[in-house]
Amino acid sequence: MGDNVPVRDGDPPELEDAVAIVATLDTKGCEASYLADIIARSGRQTVLIDVGTSRTAGETAGSSARVASPAELLKEIAATARTRVRDLVRSRAISAIVGVAGGKGSAAFGTVVSDLPYGFPKLLVSSARPALLAELAIHNDIILYPTLVDLFGINAFTERVLENAGRAVAAMHYRPAQAVRKRKIIAITAFGVTTPAAHQCVAHLAESGVDAIVFPANGAGGRKMEQLIAAGEFDAVIDLTTTELADELFGGTAGAGPDRLKAASDRLIPQVIAPGAVDMVNFGPPSSVPDQFRGRQFYSHTSYTTLMRTTPSENERIGRLTAERLSRAKGPAVVLWPAKGVSDYDREGGIFRNPEADKAWLDALKDSLAPAIAVRELNCHINDPEFAAAAATWILKQLGTEADRDANV
User: Fold this and answer.
1) Which of the listed ranges 66-80, 169-183, 264-278 does the model predict with the highest average pLDDT?
2) Alpha-carbon span 4 to 19, nearest angstrom
3) 8 vs 382 pLDDT, higher one
């Protein structure tokens, strides 16, 4: 059977392949203890990480330094717990982590697991509001288990939730990736309207024995891709779909933040950049579109997604921002321009077809881009086979694969 070991200020006892439980023990101690028992009965050790903020609740994961507010205290405690959890992971004392929390505890859990490796099992049992859980999902690969009822002790409803969560996390084990990869791995961005291009790139790469990991350019996807590139997970990037920059600039729902389009330059890895889906800004249902955009051209992609066609002046700003960020690159980089359209909706006869607006992106990019970075204009649509072939061939040449040693690109 497993053991339940509380972690406080000293060094943790000998642990191996345990499950860490993060909770505010001053308010969720009963639930954390119940969860620990479930995991222990499943044969795993557990270690309790207390992120409670009560100054009279005994020892916590945080320091005893005075802070100005409860929010600052929570932030300090979570940061200290994050360091402790990171040490437990490095020593392989734990191979999974679970949080049981309300709103404050859920926010703390997001901080605690923020720099754990991709794929490390992170399960959060939470009664927090959906908007907070959605925000956590944007930043990390947390498995969310909303309770739908408040966590007020153990009862007929919380028993079901905690038993399911306990058995689930007890079956999860992190296994670090191999230090030396057998195959090259390429990151690719895609959206529904650039999916054909992504599919074709994946196929070209596979023919040369190169793996491709596709990220949805929906905000969360681009943000996570940048984090993983910075962590050294990829050998190159085919950034087909830079639409997240449009949302960042104009208040859409798919913005990926100020670090988008930076990590590959910092890591000096080869990157292909294309203006995939920069013809649109994403909003939710029609009622969610800001009043300032009334009278613009819209298209209901789904009942939950409203797309707004970008104007020439907006595309100019997107192109300039693309150039500013890409100009940081000291490693191999190229921009590929599809003259016949940047998305499925921006093709001949398409609802968003607007060559003038598209060209504004290209002109602004050329005006601001570092001279060392080449721009190749292709007389095709982004989803045409020749575009994907050009992107994949250039990347393969940079990687020095046998199949494309003599590629003339």
Assistant:
1) 264-278
2) 9
3) 382
With 80 as the cut, is the pLDDT of residue 2 above it?
Answer: no
Residue 309 main-chain phi, psi, to 5 deg: -70, 130
Q: Taking the alpha carbons of 368, 374, 379, 382 in that order, is the dihedral positive or negative? A: negative
In 3D space, the residue among 56, 384, 381, 392 whose CA is nearest the CA of residue 201 turns out to be: 392
Measured between alpha carbons, how far is 125 from 35 in angstroms, rounded to an integer? 10
As a whole number of angstroms, the distance between CA 375 and CA 337 comes to 7
Cα–Cα distance between 339 and 343 in angstroms, integer? 11
Query: Left if phi > 0, otherwise alpha if psi is -120 to 50, otherwise beta: which for 59?
Result: beta
By three-state DSSP, how is residue 32 classified? helix
Using CA atoms, how far apart are residues 63 and 107, in angstroms rounded to an integer? 18
Instruction: State the DSSP code for 293.
Output: G
How big is the chain, counted in residues?
A: 409
Amino acid in position 323 = A
Cα–Cα distance, 232 to 299 (Å, whole number): 38
- Provide the token pair at 211: 């793996």
Residue type, 380: C
Q: What is the pLDDT of residues 371-391, one digit of tens each?
A: 999 999 999 999 999 999 999
Cα-based angle 238, 298, 355 (whole degrees, multiple of 5):
55
**Could you give the CA distance from residue 115 to residue 107 in angstroms, rounded to a whole number?**
14
DSSP at 44: -
Q: How much is the pTM?
A: 0.77
Question: For residue range 280-337, what is the model confidence (pLDDT) as tens digits?
Answer: 999 999 999 999 999 999 999 888 899 999 999 999 999 999 999 999 999 999 999 9
Residue 283's DSSP bridge partners are 306
Instruction: Round to whole Å and give the CA distance between 38 and 147.
Output: 17
Contacts of 27 (CB under 8 A, 6+ apart): 52, 54, 102, 105
Quote the CA–CA distance of 128 and 134 in Å, as a whole number.
10
Tell me phi and psi for residue 8, to 5 degrees: -125, -130
**Host H or E run for residue 241:** none
Which residue is it, tokens 């104007």? 311
Would you place residue 59 in the very low, low, confident or very high pLDDT band (cuts 50, 70, 90)? very low
Report percent pLDDT > 70 for the chain: 90
